[in-house]
Design brief:
0% strand
């Protein structure tokens, strides 16, 4: 199966989102497994979101992650 191609800005957005998830997860002193359990998402999903490859993520998944990290979705999405 071929990987989906993204425009450069779309790919950067997805990478930035992954970096933000990782930043707040580490700030909360949680492992990927713990965040997965708290958010109801799979470990694989969390791992893919945080990877250096663009990974599409739903707004519901972002909501669950933010809630699990005790932050707002807005905080999660604040990057330049």
């Amino acid at each position: 199966m071929a990987r989906k191609k993204y425009a450069e800005d779309e790919a950067q957005f997805l990478k930035n989102m992954g970096y933000r998830v990782q930043f707040f997860r580490k700030k909360a002193d949680l492992s990927q497994e713990q965040l997965a359990e708290r958010s109801g998402l799979s470990y694989s999903t969390i791992s893919h979101i945080e990877s250096t490859e663009p990974y599409p993520v739903s707004i519901v998944a972002l909501f669950r992650i933010a809630k699990s990290l005790n932050i707002s979705v807005h905080q999660l999405m604040m990057f330049d």
